[in-house]
Amino acid sequence: MQIRLFRPEDAAQIAQLFHDTVRGVNVRDYSIAQVQAWSPDDLYFRDWATVCSGRFTYVADAGGLILGFGELESNGHIDCFYCHKDYQRRGVGRAIYQAIEAKARELQIDRVFTEASITAKPFFQTLGFEIVAEQQVSCRGETFINYRMEKTFSI
Questions:
Q1: What is the spatial distance between Cα 136 and Cα 2, in angstroms, rounded to a whole number?
Q2: Global pTM?
Q3: I need a surface site. Which of 20, 25, 111, 116 has the fewest CB within 10 A?
Q4: How far apart are CA 54 and CA 92, in angstroms?
C-alpha cells in the first residue's frame, strides 16, 4: 500500500468508496434514511475531482485499488476521511492520517480538526483527538449526530 496525493483519475473510485462505506459501515450507527441522505444514489452530487484537487487529499493505493482517502484543508480541517468497507481495521486509516499530520506540520499547522461520525469517533480518539462538542447537523432533510474533534501538537 502506498500513500500518495489524489489524482483526478481517482475521482470515480473515491466516489464509489465513499458511497459503499457510508452505506455498508456507517449504517451500523445511523438509520437507512440518514445514510441515504448522507450518500445519495447519485454518486456525483459532489464534484469529487474538483474538491479533492483543491485540498491535500491523500489516498491509500494498493496496486490501483484505492483503500481509503482523507482530505486536509489549509486551515487544518480534515474533511472527508473514509476507508474502504472491506479494508477496515487494517492500518489504512492510520497511514492516511500520518500523511495528513505530516503535511499539517510541514505547513506549520499545530491543530487539526474534524467532524467525526459516531462510527469514526473511536478511530479519531485512538489518534489523540479530543471531543470538543457533540452536535446535530442536517443533510438533505435528515438530522445526524456527529462530533467536533481536534488534536493539537507542537510543530
A1: 35
A2: 0.91
A3: 111
A4: 22
